[in-house]
Amino acid sequence: MRPPFPPPPERAAELRLRFAEEARAERPDLSMLCLLLAAAGDAALDEAGIDAAQMELDRLAGLLPYRPGGPRAWAEATRDLLGGRLGFRGTAGDYRLLESSLLHEVLRRRRGLPILLSVVWMEVARRAGAPVYGVALPGHFVVGFGTAGERVLADPFDGGRVLTGMDAELLVVGSTGAPLDPSVLTPAAPGEVVLRILNNIRAWAAARPERSDVSLWAVELSLLLPSHPARLRYERARLLVQRGQFVAGAEELEAYAEVVAAVDEGAGERLRGEARAARAMLN
């Protein structure tokens, strides 16, 4: 199967504008952010496809029982529907596919990375009235139901398995080698979720140099989020140079050099040197 490719420049520019507006809204819509992100990476996802994905989330929410009870009852009801009856879950092979980070494909395939499956869990349960949120454990994303006073965690990648405190601890230790810090159990904001998805996409593309197109659109969307690492500007500049856009890359390097030089003149000068080298490639 041919991997997804980004849309033409005009469509891509429109999607970036809408993504930036949604990301800066007072209450960003997580599913819309994920679908705009997906459309930026897959030219096959048009407006009808975006609408169809939202309607599918609505349809799935309608299959959940009405207010089944407390946090555990919500977690179990969502698990039974999505993980059990409908077969949403993840496998090791999903990490090799770009589609595993694109919401419309995750809804179609019922397979994906932990964070995208968690988005499905969150959006379906939220629409049904559940007190649900994302939990960004180090190395593994899960969902939480309830509040800090009565919290139940579930792992959508494992079909929605309800986690005990020890289960969550083992997930973190297995990923990082460090114990679970209770501070990571706080709800993840939509911008945090989307940045983590984009980080996964950048990691996927970094292992495939021929897909620098994916690296570029993922970095550009990351830069549109209200909170993002400043160093992404440098990554974008390097990608532009790599893709033969020497002038644009040099200009980005020079602009970033001005920012960096304010705190480290030596680093700023090294960036200016990279900009000069990029311009020299035009000769």
From TrEMBL:
Domain of life: Bacteria
Residue intervals of the Protein SirB1 N-terminal domain: 54-199
Sequence similarity: Belongs to the UPF0162 family.
Name of the protein in question: Protein SirB1 N-terminal domain-containing protein
Organism: Streptomyces pharetrae CZA14
